[in-house]
Design brief:
homodimer, about 350 residues, Rossmann fold, five-stranded parallel sheet
Chain lengths: ~350, ~350
C-alpha cells in the first residue's frame, strides 16, 4: 500500500463535499475541528509534510505557512474567488500550485447585487423595522425607482470593474429598463470600443463604454463596485468620488470592503450626496458591530458578506476547491488553477 | 365669473401635483389638512355639494359618502390601482364616474416583487441585523438561489393572478434563468393556450401554462401573489396550499394582505413547509406590530405596503388621480376610468 498524502483542511465543508476527501484511499485528511475560523497555531503545527492545504479567505497564505508546510507541498486551494489573502510570488517561488473558485459564484453575487440595488433605493433599512410606528403618507419612504419610467425612460449602470459578475448583473438589469452601461477598468489594459459594442449588442443596451471614475460617478444611476481588492483599488470610492454622484443614485458593493472608504460613505449618506447604499462587504470585517458608521448610516443596508451564500453555490465552491486540491496533489490538471508566473 | 366646482381631496398630494388643483380657476378645493388618514367625520361634513372627491385606499366609498355628497357629485378618483374600498354598484346606481391609477405603478410593484423574492431566499431578516453576533461558516445563512445554476438549470415562477404586474415580474426573472411560468386565473375566464404560447415567446421562456392552485404550489420555485383582493380571493393561500409548496420555495405577496392567511403562513415558516416569504401587504394593515405572527416568523420579510412607493411612481399616480378628477368633473374623457356597469 502506497504512503498516503497528507492534506490539511481549514474548515469542515459539510456532508455534501467532505466524503470526497475523507473517503479518498490515498489521502490522510486533517480537518480543523471547530465551527470557527481555523486557529493559526493549529494550522502551522499541522502543516508540516502536507501535500495540499485547503484554505478560506480567513487564512493568510504567506511564507510563514509555506515554510511550515515544507517541500512536500504541491497545492494550496482556496474556497473563494478572491485571493488577496495569498502571497502569489511566494507560491510561485516554491512552485506551489494555487486553486480558487471563480465563475461558480457569478450568479449568486449578481443576484445579491440586484437585491442590494433594490434595497438601497427602497429604503429597506427603515421599512423592514417600521412596525408599528409609521404613518402612511403619499411620499413616505419614496426614493428613486430602479426601473425606468415613461417620464424618465433611460437608466445608466456604472461598474467599477467589468468582469463576469458585472456582466451577469448587467444582464439582470436590462428588463428593468437599463439602457446605458459605463465601466472603469484596470488602466494597464487598452480600451476596446469594438468589444464594448459587442457587449452592448449581446445584452441589448444602447451603449457600453469605458470611462474614468469622474464620469462614472456623474452619470450612473447605480454604481456597482465589482473590482478585486488589494492595494491598487484601496479606497477607490472616496469622498471625491461620492461627491460627484447623482443625489438620486445608489452605491452597491459586493466585491471587497477595502475599495470603499467607510467613513466617507457614511458622511455622504448623512449629508445626502447620494440616495442610499447596499453593502455586502466592509473594510475590517468581520469586526463590524452596531456602532460601525455604515451600520448607523441612513439608507444603508449592510450584510455580512453573503454574496455567494446560497446552498447551490457554496456546494459548488466547496466541490471545486476539493477537486482543485486533489488534482493538484496528484499532478492532474486542476479545474480552476490561478496562473502564478514566477 | 362662473360658479366654481367644489372638490374634496382626502390627502395633500405634495408640491409636484397639488398646484394643478389649487390653481385651477374653476375649482374650489378643500384639502384634509393633516399628515394622516382623512378623518371620516371631516369628510362627511365637507362632502355636501362636491362635484368631485379624491380618495386613497383608506377612504371607504360607500352609500354613506355618496349620499352625503349629494346630486352634484360627478366623479370619485382614487390614487390606487385597487378599488376594494369602493362600492362600485352604488357608484353605478348614481351615475358617478370612478377613476383609478392602473399601469403607472406596474414597474414599481414588479421591482419590489423581485426584491422580496431575493430577500426571502437570502434570509435578510436575519442577515441585516446580525452585527456583531455572527460566526461565518461555509453554509451559514444559505438558502435556495433565485438564479438557475449549472447543476439545477431550470426555474419555475408561479403567479396567482397573471395581469400586467405579473408579466412585468416575469420579464425581470428571465435573466435569472427562469425557464417556466405557471399561473392561476379567474375560473370564469376560459383557458387560452395560444395566448399562453405567445406570452412564452415574448419573454423567451419554455412554457407559460395555466394550472390549478395545487399544481402551482407543487411546481413553483417562487410563488407571486398578484391577484386582486376581495371576497373571491380571501385566504386563497391557506394551510392546504402552503403544505403543497416545495420546501425550498419562497412566497411573495405584493397585492393584498387578504389573499394570504397570516397564521397559516407563520405556521408554515416555523415548521419549514417552505423556505421563506417576502410580504409587502398584511391582512389588517396598518395595524401590524412587532408581535404580529408574520413579523415574528423566521425568514419572513414584512414591509409596510411600499409596492408603489418610489418618487417617480407616486408622482405619476397622484398626477393621474388629479387628471381623472378634473376631467371627470368637466365631462371630458378620463385617462383611467373604471367602467362601472349598472
Amino acid at each position: 500500500m502506497p504512503q498516503r498524502r497528507k492534506v490539511v483542511v481549514c474548515r469542515d465543508l459539510g456532508p455534501d463535499v467532505m466524503p470526497t476527501l475523507l473517503n479518498h484511499p490515498e489521502l490522510e485528511v486533517i480537518v480543523w475541528p471547530e465551527n470557527s475560523s481555523c486557529d493559526r497555531k493549529w494550522l502551522l503545527e499541522n502543516a508540516p509534510g502536507a501535500s495540499g492545504i485547503l484554505v478560506l479567505l480567513s487564512e493568510k497564505v504567506n511564507a510563514e505557512l509555506l515554510d511550515a508546510a515544507g517541500p512536500n507541498l504541491r497545492v494550496v486551494s482556496t474556497m473563494s474567488v478572491g485571493y488577496e489573502h495569498a502571497d502569489i510570488p511566494e507560491l510561485a517561488k516554491r512552485g506551489v500550485k494555487f486553486g480558487y473558485t471563480p465563475d461558480v459564484l457569478t450568479d449568486a453575487v449578481a443576484d445579491l447585487s440586484i437585491m442590494l440595488a433594490l434595497m438601497a433605493g427602497r429604503n429597506t433599512k427603515e421599512t423592514t423595522e417600521i412596525w408599528p410606528n409609521f404613518v402612511w403618507s403619499p411620499f413616505a419612504f419614496c426614493g428613486p425607482q430602479l426601473s425606468a419610467t415613461s417620464t424618465s425612460p433611460t437608466r445608466t449602470a456604472g461598474f467599477i470593474g467589468f468582469g463576469r459578475i458585472a456582466q451577469a448583473t448587467l444582464a439582470r438589469l436590462v428588463p428593468f429598463g437599463f439602457t446605458h452601461c459605463l465601466y472603469t477598468a484596470n488602466p494597464s489594459t487598452p480600451p476596446n470600443p469594438a468589444a464594448d459594442a459587442q457587449v452592448a449588442a449581446k445584452y441589448g443596451v444602447k451603449e457600453v463604454r469605458r470611462v474614468d471614475m469622474a464620469e462614472l460617478a456623474r452619470e450612473s444611476d447605480v454604481v456597482f463596485v465589482l473590482a478585486p481588492g488589494g492595494s491598487k483599488t484601496y479606497h477607490i470610492v472616496n469622498e471625491e468620488f461620492l461627491k460627484q454622484m447623482k443625489k438620486t443614485a445608489v452605491l452597491v458593493n459586493t466585491s471587497r470592503g477595502t475599495l470603499v472608504d467607510s467613513d466617507a460613505l457614511a458622511k455622504a449618506l448623512h449629508e445626502g450626496w447620494l440616495y442610499g447604499a447596499g453593502i455586502d462587504v466592509v473594510e475590517g470585517e468581520p469586526n463590524v458591530d452596531e456602532n460601525h458608521p455604515l451600520v448607523k448610516a441612513p439608507r444603508c443596508v449592510v450584510l455580512p458578506h453573503i454574496g455567494s451564500a446560497t446552498t447551490e453555490t457554496r456546494i459548488g465552491m466547496a466541490t471545486l476547491a476539493v477537486n482543485n486540491l486533489i488534482n493538484g496533489i496528484f499532478g492532474r490538471p486542476m479545474p480552476a488553477e490561478l496562473s502564478v508566473s514566477r
